[in-house]
Amino acid sequence: MHFRANISCLSRILPRLGEALRLLPQHRIYPLPLDVILLVLFGALLHATWNAIVKAGSDKSLDAALISAGGAVSALPFLAFLPLPQSAAWPFIGASAILQFAYFQLVAAAYRAGDIGLVYPLMRGCAPLLVAATSGVVLREHLSGAALAGIITISAGVLTLALEARRSSGHAVAFSIANAFVIASYTYVDGIGARLSGNAVSYTLWMSLLPPILLFAWASSQRGSLTVLHHVRRNWWRGLIGGAGSIASYGLALWAMTKAPVATVAALRETSILFALVLSVAIFKEKAGIWRYVAGVVIAIGVLVLKLA
């Protein structure tokens, strides 16, 4: 029932998204500034950190909901000091909430079906390729050959990590690919919404409020309110820390999308996998195989190509 209601809501929002897209001016492409690169990389570090918090938890689904709620709680104190997003951005905020709900649901399903060494690279590696392949049609952003080469290189490096997976699952692959489409979709929705909002930070904070409501309503209907409340009481601090990192990470990415091509920022953000590799060895004491180091070198080359593009 919840999914049908979300699909119905999304069908009402999509026509308004189309109208806003027609009003969006063609975005001129400039070389990626160093400050944008550094802030996106810092956001990638934050992204890897909150994913590590989810990985270390005992209940991936509820921990993901807690991270989402922590982001909303972190956003609340700042809303009074920021302007409201422009009216053209509100349909995008609504669409993003539905897509974020689907994203967290698919993350949980994929991790239940397969190893993180397979799932995470597929989700994060396929998404920027999808954005790069379609950004010319959707956003009228025409990337240079060098920028496209950098995006493909970073994505190839991320996907190389899938070779580390010891066993594969058809369901895990299906969930991962489906979530890559969701990630690409909300990348477009939020990239456009942030530009139309007039203030990327304000857009990010308002966008963060609805997904945890949907996630906890779904969790309570499926598992019972007492189970959810018990988990929240024991793990609220994890959600607050991870949520603050999550909202800061995505806010930096959306800000960067107002300064640079969406496809380029989306690809650069996938360097979070490098930080995840470091955390997996330093914190979780996981053994790193040869393909992890190969992927790290490929991703680093991709970042360099993007800088020189």
TrEMBL record:
GO BP term (any one): lipid A biosynthetic process
Species this protein is from: Rhizobium etli (strain ATCC 51251 / DSM 11541 / JCM 21823 / NBRC 15573 / CFN 42)
Domain EamA: 173-306
Cellular-component GO terms for this entry: plasma membrane
The name this protein goes by in its record: Transporter, permease protein
Membrane topology label: Multi-pass membrane protein
Main location: membrane
Transmembrane parts of this sequence: 29-50, 62-82, 88-111, 118-139, 145-163, 170-188, 200-219, 240-257, 263-283, 290-308
InterPro entries from the UniProt entry: EamA_dom, EmrE-like, Small_drug/metabolite_transptr
Pfam families cross-referenced by the UniProt entry: EamA
Keywords: Cell inner membrane, Cell membrane, Lipid A biosynthesis, Lipid biosynthesis, Lipid metabolism, Lipopolysaccharide biosynthesis, Membrane, Transmembrane, Transmembrane helix
GO terms for MF: transmembrane transporter activity
Subcellular location: Cell membrane
